[in-house]
Amino acid sequence: MTGLVLKLGPNERVLINGAVIENGDRRSRISVMTPNAHILRLRDAIHPEHANTPVRRVCYIAQLVLSGDAEPAETRMQLLRGIEQLSQVLNDADSRTQLSLATAAVLENLHYQALKHLRTLLPREERLFAAAQK
């Protein structure tokens, strides 16, 4: 079997090609066979007003591609520039690895993978902001 397999928890919502799909009361699996479908788990979604930190802003751009609200070609340079800026601040080995993986994913038009790698940086960013507040 090929395609993307989504494993959804009870009542979990997912956006597929602009339509919000809500799972029933039990866990389920959905196979998406259409290549290049726009898919975004709503639990992972960042609302525009919450895209207020550097990592969240770059995640939001990737999310726009996944939701179908932006074209990959239009956002490629913006994403790569944002990842490069993050790499100047998040320079520990693990962050650099995640940023490299996100860059490779963007270059291959794998925006879900890019978002997945970028989201791992959110806790680090939060800790940096918390330390700066002290």
Automatic annotation (TrEMBL):
Gene name for this UniProt entry: flbT
The UniProt record lists the keyword RNA-binding: yes
Matching InterPro entries: Armadillo (IPR000225), Flagellum_FlbT (IPR009967)
Protein name: Flagellum biosynthesis repressor protein FlbT
Taxonomic lineage: unclassified sequences, metagenomes, ecological metagenomes
GO molecular function: mRNA 5'-UTR binding
GO annotation, biological process: mRNA catabolic process; negative regulation of bacterial-type flagellum assembly
Keywords: RNA-binding
Family annotation (Pfam families): FlbT
